[in-house]
Amino acid sequence: MNGLRTRLAALAAVCGLLAGCGLDSNITLPLNVLPGSLPAPPDLAGVRIVVGSKDFTEQIVLGHITEFALAAAGADVVDLTNIQGSNSARQALLTGDIDVQWEYTGTAWVSYLGQTEPIPDERLQFEAVRELDRANGLEWLDFAPLNNTYAFGMRREVAERLGITTISQLAEAVTRDPALGVFCVETEFVSRDDGFPGVQQAYGFRAAPANMKIFGAGAIYQALANGACTFGEITSTDGRTLALDLTVLVDDRKFFPQYNAAPVVRTDFLAAHPGVRDVLAPLAERLDNGTMQRLSAQVDVYGADPVEVARDWLVREGFIRLP
């Protein structure tokens, strides 16, 4: 909650300068939109809904997508995206400071629910998280194909030349020619059980310590593109993979935990406003890794406003209309 309180305190200071704006509303967004293919359930008309998100690009875009969709359905939407830290965002939902946010199954399973053994199947992982979190008064709406998990990336031309599309093929290539096994990874990934030690064991290959190059998360993408390493630890939905023409290798043995995104609401709020499920379900169906890579790249690579990126995607997909 500290991140949320800091945000609210900062907003209160700003509002004091802006003649009487209160904590019941956040920065004004251009939410004057009309429904397209999305439904406009009567139970949402005029209902105040506070939408939250964590503080990284993908989450902020998802938050704004949700805001526009609910506004088109007739809700009175309040923006509280960009909450600092997963735990602060989670606490804001539990305490009712926000009403809906997108969360990841793997994050909830390990970080919030205290489980140590991920479930490889996406649907089974989601159902297990949904069932456990109901005891916390939270309801997970159906998950999206969007799965923001660990992955290995390669330059596309190198992947095509070597014929590598999966981590099994990576393992075969490195075993056959150890000189290929140059990896760019983060410090934490080197030692985590669900990181490099575990993936080597699961896929049966071994990289020489001298071939391990340690970078910050953002620097790995550029290091890959510059040829500093053959393989790099990335995330599967990052827009820089498109901008730098990188290939995301398939985790064909499903070693890495599943991090499918899904909207989460409090159980009592959903019971009072079931139309939220109807509005958000079509969005979850359409949001996959490729879509999020493109949306994130518009923000992180080309400097677009995430509000406009979210709105324009909804318009292109026919979900909403502009007046």
From TrEMBL:
Gene3D superfamilies for this protein: Osmoprotection protein (prox), domain 2, Periplasmic binding protein-like II
Pfam families from the UniProt entry: OpuAC (PF04069)
GO CC entries: ATP-binding cassette (ABC) transporter complex
Superkingdom in the source lineage: Bacteria
Every ABC-type glycine betaine transport system substrate-binding domain range: 48-314
GO molecular function, one term: transmembrane transporter activity
Name of the protein described by the UniProt record: Osmoprotectant transport system substrate-binding protein
Lineage: Bacteria, Bacillati, Actinomycetota, Actinomycetes, Pseudonocardiales
